[in-house]
């Protein structure tokens, strides 16, 4: 009973340190409850693209679990640091480490019980709200119903019991490793004046520079995948190294500027930061990295959600299309027309284009070489272009022109890049380019991962000879013409969707849905994916923002406790109240605005890399991505300023309570 009363008294007296820890744990329980309930929801299995949705939220739940573990360890280390002096006093007064361990154990039980119970209760409430938000964002149908899975809650409870046990074990190890005098000193143990670590600073600059260079020089979306995580690791390592070295270097440079340094406000601020910059550097680098993660996560997920029309356009040049055998062209066109009348949608056009199957080729000085599907060199695939052939008769029929070509002449259309030169060869077969085609009406211009080439030759025989020269071993796979039947429709969006689903169903019965593409069906499936993706981004962004705010808060508390005595002494030797306030303001601004500036710089240099990765999802609208990035920076900056203002009040109260 004695230990229980003592533990309750400790929690009450240390509420300034415990309150944010408990609130953060409640929030983490909340987030995990929401993710698990959504993931284990019975309605998830009835969704279109259920496997993709479950994979997406499964990935998100794993990220949240990892984040929860890391952040719990981080906040616990701050909490223990604030309580060392109190535990040391108990130890000096005769309480052994075993007894202290009992107090910590009871405190851990009380905190964990309160956090888990409140977290579960609020998590269930917010999971219902999150369910409604997710349903609205994704357009999930009536089959996606809210259901509370007891197993999901049990999983969260067991996980957090494990987290709190881990924190208790870590605290006990820390308690056993230090002597009572070190505990009693608590957070007041100072640091020696740090030396400038030139090697660390240079390596940090080099790593960040290398990450930036990768991002701005990568041109291929496929290559961006392999270098994405390397660039991230380089920037993270470089950020920590840069803060640990350059911050000290900057402070020492300011110290050498005598006119600047020998002023009351600057003198105190620079000296205070100088002697604890090693511990500051890790926290500030963490703030910068977390801020970058918030900006990147919300910018990419937001761009995919709001750029859905651009993605659909890139995936579907036509409202509906599919490749069919030559003898089925008329039958499929007739089916398109007859079903359109039943579903009350208007066909703007129905036609077909006779094209060869697309070949992947690599351009080398206007000489195109075939790239086999068996090629494993990712660098080759990153440079590859898609190539299709058609005859002049087919081109003239569709474009209503009168192009005339001889057997050694071609007309060439490059969709995503300007072709330069007056000749081209395919394999060992050369051609003169009679005409560069600027636009083809039956092939809408779309932005893709790789460039698309359309080559018009004089006749079918020339096409076959060219295919043999280009891909002699794979000729039979590309020799047969595969007409593409396409249709563009207008009308009510729900009717278009019903019409597309009916066409897909009938074509499936005919055994011809392998290449079927529909903008209406894609829109339905894409809304579910991008809506879920944005929802997940919001959850992760909120978690990272909370982590940023708590790190700032704990830094303000720990530094306020250290500076309280120093500012009291400074006032006794003549420093005015106004000078104290100016010094505090200058110190806080220097410390907490550098991370957000660096985070914005990271986002700016990550823009080319992230643009390439978004291309893999079908989003090519870089202007939209840039606008979303700017909006997210402004919103996060406002949130950051609020966090800075609120946590600064804690520091002021700690330091100024002795100001007279």
UniProtKB/TrEMBL annotation:
Query: Where, subcellularly, is it found?
Result: Cell membrane
Question: Does this UniProt record's set of keywords contain Transport?
Answer: yes
Residue ranges of the TM segments: 21-39, 59-79, 100-133, 153-175, 196-215, 227-251, 281-306, 533-554, 588-611, 623-643
Q: Give the matching Pfam families.
A: FtsX (PF02687)
Query: Would you name any one GO CC term?
Result: plasma membrane
ABC3 transporter permease C-terminal domain span: 59-174
How does it sit in the bilayer? Multi-pass membrane protein
**What processes does the entry annotate via GO biological process terms?**
transmembrane transport
Q: What is its main location?
A: membrane
Print the keywords alphabetically. Cell membrane, Membrane, Transmembrane, Transmembrane helix, Transport
Family as reported in the entry's similarity comment: Belongs to the ABC-4 integral membrane protein family.
PANTHER family hit by this protein:
ABC TRANSPORTER PERMEASE (PTHR46795:SF3), ABC TRANSPORTER PERMEASE-RELATED-RELATED (PTHR46795)
Name of this chain's protein: ABC3 transporter permease C-terminal domain-containing protein
Q: Which organism is it from?
A: Vagococcus teuberi
UniProt lineage = Bacteria, Bacillati, Bacillota, Bacilli, Lactobacillales
């Amino acid at each position: 009973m004695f230990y229980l009363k003592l533990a309750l008294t400790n929690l009450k007296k240390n509420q300034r340190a415990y309150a944010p820890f408990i609130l953060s744990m409640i929030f983490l329980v909340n987030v995990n409850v929401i993710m698990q309930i959504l993931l284990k929801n019975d309605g998830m299995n009835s969704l279109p693209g259920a496997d993709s949705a479950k994979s997406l939220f499964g990935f998100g739940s794993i990220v949240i679990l990892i984040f929860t573990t890391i952040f719990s360890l981080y906040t616990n280390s701050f909490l223990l640091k604030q309580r060392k002096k109190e535990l040391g006093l108990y130890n000096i007064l005769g309480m052994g480490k075993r007894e202290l361990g009992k107090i910590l154990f009871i405190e851990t039980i009380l905190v964990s019980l309160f956090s888990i119970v409140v977290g579960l209760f609020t998590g269930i409430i917010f999971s219902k709200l999150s369910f409604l938000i997710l349903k609205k964002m994704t357009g999930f149908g009536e089959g996606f119903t809210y259901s509370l899975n007891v197993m999901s809650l049990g999983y969260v409870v067991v996980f957090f019991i494990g987290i709190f046990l881990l924190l208790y074990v870590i605290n006990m190890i820390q308690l056993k490793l230090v002597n009572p005098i070190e505990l009693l000193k608590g957070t007041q143990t100072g640091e020696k004046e740090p030396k400038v670590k030139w090697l660390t600073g240079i390596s940090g600059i080099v790593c960040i520079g290398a990450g930036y260079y990768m991002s701005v020089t990568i041109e291929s979306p496929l290559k961006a995948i392999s270098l994405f995580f390397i660039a991230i690791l380089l920037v993270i390592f470089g950020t920590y190294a840069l803060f640990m070295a350059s911050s000290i270097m900057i402070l020492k440079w300011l110290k050498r500027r005598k006119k600047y340094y020998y002023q009351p406000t600057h003198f105190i601020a620079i000296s205070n930061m100088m002697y604890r910059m090693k511990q500051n550097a890790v926290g500030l680098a963490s703030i910068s990295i977390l801020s970058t993660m918030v900006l990147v996560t919300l910018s990419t997920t937001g761009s995919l959600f709001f750029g859905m029309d651009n993605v659909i356009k890139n995936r579907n040049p036509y409202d509906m299309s599919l490749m069919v055998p030559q003898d089925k062209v008329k039958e499929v066109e007739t089916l398109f027309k007859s079903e359109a009348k039943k579903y009350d949608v208007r066909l703007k056009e129905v036609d077909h284009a006779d094209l060869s199957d697309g070949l992947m080729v690599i351009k080398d000085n206007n000489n195109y070489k075939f790239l086999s599907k068996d090629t494993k060199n990712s660098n080759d695939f990153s440079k590859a272009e898609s190539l299709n052939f058609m005859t002049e008769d087919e081109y003239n029929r569709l474009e209503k022109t009168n192009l005339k070509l001889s057997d050694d002449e071609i007309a060439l259309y490059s969709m995503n890049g300007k072709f330069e030169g007056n000749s081209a060869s395919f394999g060992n077969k050369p051609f003169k380019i009679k005409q560069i085609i600027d636009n083809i009406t039956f092939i809408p211009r779309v932005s893709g991962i790789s460039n698309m080439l359309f080559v018009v030759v004089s006749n079918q025989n020339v096409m076959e000879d060219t295919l043999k020269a280009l891909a002699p071993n794979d000729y039979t796979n590309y020799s047969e013409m595969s007409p593409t039947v396409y249709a563009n429709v207008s009308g009510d969006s729900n009717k278009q969707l019903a019409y597309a689903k009916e066409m897909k169903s009938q074509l499936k019965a005919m055994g011809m849905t392998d290449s079927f593409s529909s903008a209406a069906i894609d829109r339905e499936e894409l809304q579910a994916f991008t809506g879920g993706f944005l929802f997940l981004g919001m959850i992760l962004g909120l978690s990272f923002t909370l982590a940023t705010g708590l790190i700032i808060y704990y830094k303000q508390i720990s530094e306020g406790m250290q500076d309280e005595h120093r500012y009291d002494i400074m006032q006794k030797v003549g420093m005015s109240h106004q000078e104290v306030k100016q010094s505090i303001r200058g110190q806080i601004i220097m410390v907490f605005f550098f991370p957000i500036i660096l985070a914005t710089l990271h986002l700016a240099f990550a823009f080319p890399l992230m643009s390439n990765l978004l291309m893999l999802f079908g989003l090519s609208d870089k202007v939209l991505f840039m606008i979303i990035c700017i909006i997210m920076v402004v919103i996060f900056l406002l949130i950051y300023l609020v966090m800075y203002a609120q946590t600064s009040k804690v520091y002021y109260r700690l330091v100024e309570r002795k100001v007279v």
